[in-house]
Every structure is written in structure tokens, then in C-alpha cells.
Amino acid sequence: MARVNLLGICCSWSPFACYNAAGMARMELPSNFDLIRVMCIGRINQALILRAFEYGADGVILLECQDEDCRYGPGPEVGHNNVQRVRKLLHLLGIGQKRLVEKNFAANEREELVAALWEFARDMEAMGTNPAKPSQEREGP
Amino acid sequence: MKLDDPRIKRIIRERSLSFCLECGKCSASCPRMLTGKEYSPRLLAQKLITEPEDEAFIENSVWECLTCGMCEERCPSGVAYSRFILDMRTLLAGTKGLKGYRSHDGALHSWMRLMTSPDLEQNRLDWIGPELRVAGSGPLAFFTGCAPYFDVFFSWIEVDTLSIARDSIRLLNFLDLVPVVLGEERCCGHDLLWTGDRENFETLCRQNYEEFKAAGVREVVVSCPECYQVLSQFMPQVIPGFDLKITLLMELLDREIRKGGLSFQPLPRRVTYQDPCRLGRMSGRYQVPRTLLSLIPELTLAEMENSGRSAVCCGNNGFINCDLYSKRIQVERLKEAKATRAELLVTACPKCMIHLTCAMRDPLRQGSLALPIRDLANVLAGQIEWSGGEAPVGPRPR
């Protein structure tokens, strides 16, 4: 199976607490998975998700807090809206909409988070590499 | 960038920068400077020739330009300013990386680069309903451009740029032309080109050309002025032996209407027209859209204070550097449009439509700038008919 590049964009609060706890407990994570930590998933916009694909990601998972847990208020809602809109663009580009995954976690759900990451990795490996990869990559600003 | 970099010397020579008289007409007409931005085309030209060591100034200025071509229009010495900016951006992007603040965080540039993928399998034809006749291969093609993407991305300002593509195809069908619409057509690359990304731009050009060739296309009809500029002026530079005929939809219509048999239903409206920079100053098409509008009975065309050769830019180009000065340009432009007491603002470019619609929707202006805005193709497709009561050859649009 072709090796796929996986990217997680992780809210610094509940999901990162899970991720940290999983690391402390030395739970195994997919080796082809990279994590970007942001203060809130509301920080992410459509452009940043698209850019992950532009830079060669085969799958992107947004790790969010549960709706009622957001430390800032509208974070997960912004996340849902962005996912809805980017999926339409991904569909136009022929990048499977399933390559963009959105999951939310409470702060104590480290097992769930690790399981979700493995499931994400399995799904992406089954889908293979993303067909719409730019032939040359250029560094943005 | 070095003081005596031969590439810069060549750009200065090729774009006639040393003919500059420092008369300052360029700066005095630059929409960016007129709205208060600390950007001066004259000073940039002067610095580049006399003080090239001021790299920070030069680099910033090069990315500030709207490339609307107003300075070029006024320049008495024939300095090719927009092409100079284009060359400098391409050079700077190649040596120092792409700069310029990307509007919308660069989402548009991202999808344009994603389209350079050779294995792309787009789903971009969902908007073609059964009422439109299109073909998979044939001699004539219609170039849609980024409209399907714009309508998704800009859904929050409720622009309908796909209506331009639909109405363009309706008009072609009306003339009994069945255009090819490519399923793997890519962005024309205009925005990548004008933001310095020559490499990806050329890739898009080659891919589009190959797609056209594979579909047996000999003539491409374009509605968007940016696509027209790229396909007719820049694509031949990239493709050796370029042999496609590029036709502006409005010119094709103008030609067909002159043959007789076509007329327009009355539209009792007072309208004003925004000249897109890529159509007017860069391609010299001022008269055709006005002629077509004048053929519609009961339609009154009220020109804005600045129109034709001195038409003011819609505020942004290539989706970089949209800032408060862009907004001021748009607000001033919309005030000019309002001052004509027009009930409808007609433009011929989807980008003008997007940028001006965005400014109209400013909640703080409480709708004072709002004005219905439609593309020329929309207006024409809504009114066209066969004169003399003959049975139409093609289905009547709408």
C-alpha cells in the first residue's frame, strides 16, 4: 500500500490534552501522521485546509473540542462551517470529500482519540494517495 | 537582487522604464495613491533606476500595484508599467519567494496550484443542466474559468458567477453553436501569473492546451476578460506553435448580430457599465460592450464619471493585497455608479462582480452602496430574440 501523508490540526485544549495523555501513556500512533497544534479550531480557515492538500497531504483530520467545551465560544461551529465549505471545493477538485475528517473529543478521551487516528490512517491508506497533488510545490508567504 | 543584476537591467530596458520623464502622471492617476496608499509608481521607477539599493522599498512597491493599467494609459512616454510589474514579480518570486499578502489567506491560489496536478479528476460540470447543449469534443469550446469554484468559495456574498457561464452557453446555443465544455479544464492561471508564480502558470497553460487539443478544439470562446487576456496574449508565449483561435463571446455576438435576424427585447432600465481593466485598457475593447448594450431597446446607458479609458479598477487584482485602500477604491467606484442614477450595474468580468459585490455588502454602509450587478452576458441572454417572428434555430434562452 502506498504511504500516505496524514495531517492532524489539533485544538490546544481538549484534543491536545488527549494527545498529550496518549503520549505520556506511550500509546502507539500512526507513523505517517503529523500534528499541527492551534489554539482553537476556530483559528483554521478554508485556506489553511486547502493549503494542507496543496502541500501534499493525503488526508486532513481536524481534532476539535466538543461544541459545549470550546474555551472561546464559537470554535467548533467555525470548524463545522469551514469543513462544509471546503468539502464542496474538494469535491470540485476531485479530492474525495472523505479526505477531510472532523472529530471532537472531551479532555479525558485519549483512547478514543488514538482509535480515531488509527481509523483515519486506515481509511486514508485504503483510499490511497490524493490524485490532485500539484506537480511542483512552491513555498507561500 | 543586486545593484547591477542584468535581469533587472533587461526588464528596465524591455519595459521602457528609462523613458520615464518623472512627470508624475502615473502617480496622479493611480487609484491606490488617490485613495491614500503610500505607493507611487513614479517613485518606484525612479528608485529602480537611480537607487536600486533601496531593496525594501522596491520589493514592497512591486507587490502593491493593482496592475490595473491606469498609469500606463496616462504615461506620455509609453512605459509598459503593468508588464514591468509582472516581470519584476516573476523575478522576485523566483529569487526571494512569493510575496504579497494573499486575500482569503491564499485559498484561491491554493486551488489554482492544486489544479496543476496531472492526475486531477474534477467534478466541475455539475452546473450544466439539460437545458444547455454542450459537447464532449468538437471544433468550438467555451472556457468556463474558475466560476464553479468562485460560487462555492464566495457563497457568503451570494455572487452567481456560474450564471455568466450558463448564459454564455445559452447565447451560443441560441446561435446554434454547441460548445465543448471540458471536464478537466483548469484555471487559466491569470492570478498565479500576476502574483509571480510563472512556473505553475505555465503548467496550467500546457495542461489546458493539451485538453483542448485532445478534444479537437480549434476555437475557444471566452467570456471572462482575464481568461481572454491569458489565452490570447500569454498562452501563445508558453506554447510553441500555438494554433487556437481565441474569441471573446461579446465579439462573436457582435459579429452574429451584424449578420441580421437577431434583436433584443426591450429592457426599460437605466444602466451603467464598469470597464474591466483586462478587457478595456489591456485588450482595447471599450466599444463592443457599449454597442451591444445600445442594441437593447429602452435601455439607457449612463456612463460613470470615469469610464472607458479612465475607468477605475474594481479595487483588487489577482487576489492579493486587498486592504482598506482597495475598499476605498470600491466605495468611490460604487458612489460613481450610484451618481449615474443607474438601476443596474453591468460589468463584463466575474472578478469585478465579486469585488464590487463584496464592498456593497459592508454592513456599516447599511446598503447605501447596494446596486444590482450583472454581467453583460446575463443581460444579453435575458433579452436576445429572433426578429421577424421566424422560428428560432436554437432554443430561446430562458
Description:
- The complex is a heterodimer of chains A (141) and B (398).
- Chain A is 40% helix and 18% strand.
- With 141 residues, chain A is of the alpha/beta class.
- In chain A, helix 1 crosses helix 4.
- The longest helix of chain A has 19 residues, at 75-93.
- Chain B is an alpha/beta fold.
- Chain B has 18 helices and nine strands.
- In chain B, the strands form three sheets. In chain B, strands 6-5-7-8 form a four-stranded parallel sheet, with helices on both faces. A three-stranded parallel sheet of chain B has the order 1-2-3, with helices on both faces. Chain B has a two-stranded antiparallel sheet with strand order 4-9.
- In chain B, strand 2 (219-222), helix 13 and strand 3 (245-248) form a beta-alpha-beta unit.
- The longest helix of chain B has 17 residues, at 198-214.
- The N and C termini of chain B lie far apart (56 Å).
- The A-B interface holds A 45-48, 50-51, 53-54, 85, 88-89, 91-95, 131-136, 138-141 and B 97-102, 104-107, 109-111, 113-124, 148-149, 152-153, 155, 197, 199-200, 203.
Descriptive key words:
A: about 140 residues; alpha/beta; 4 strands; about 40% helix; B: about 400 residues; Fumarate Reductase Iron-sulfur Protein, Chain B, domain 2; Rossmann fold; 18 helices; disordered C terminus
